[in-house]
Structure formats: structure tokens, C-alpha cells
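Sanity check

After download, print the first record. It should look like this:
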Amino acid sequence: MGTTNVFAQLEATRLGAGVGVLPAFLAERARLRRPLPDEVDIRLPITLAGRREAVIHTAVRDALHHEVAHRADELLPGGSVRTSGPNDRLP
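Expected C-alpha cells:
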């Protein structure tokens, strides 16, 4: 089985279909455990997608950076979240 839908992956893993690569906060909420926490640590960037008019405003971007950093303990085991700087610009 294969899917790009994280919620389908979560449900399949929860039901015992195999090992899943899931966001830490989803796996923790589903009470799944990390089988190899010291050997496997996959971290992927979070990408913001939205209308250009909404995301190019510095205040919106700064608020999102702040929220991700504020929720570090919730998003990643160990609470280490690196966000881009508030001066990052879109092309």
C-alpha cells in the first residue's frame, strides 16, 4: 500500500499495516512509539503554501515563524525546531 496522505499513513500504521514515517506530534497523539529513536531521526522542512498576497506580508510570515517556534515541544521530539528567519523573502 502507498499513499501521500499523512492521515491515511497514520491510520494504516495505527492498524498495524507496518512502520510509518509520520510527524512526531501525530504519532504521539495516536500513542504510537518510535521503534528506533536513536538510529532514525527524519526531519523534513515545513512548507507554507498559500496565496501570494497572504504569504508575502512580513507580519503573516513572522507570526507563522513565531507559532512554529512556540510549539516546538509539540511538533518534534526534543522540541528543537529551526525556522527560517523573519527576513526571508519569497522569490
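If your output differs, re-run the checksum step. Summary of this record's structure: The mean pLDDT is 79.
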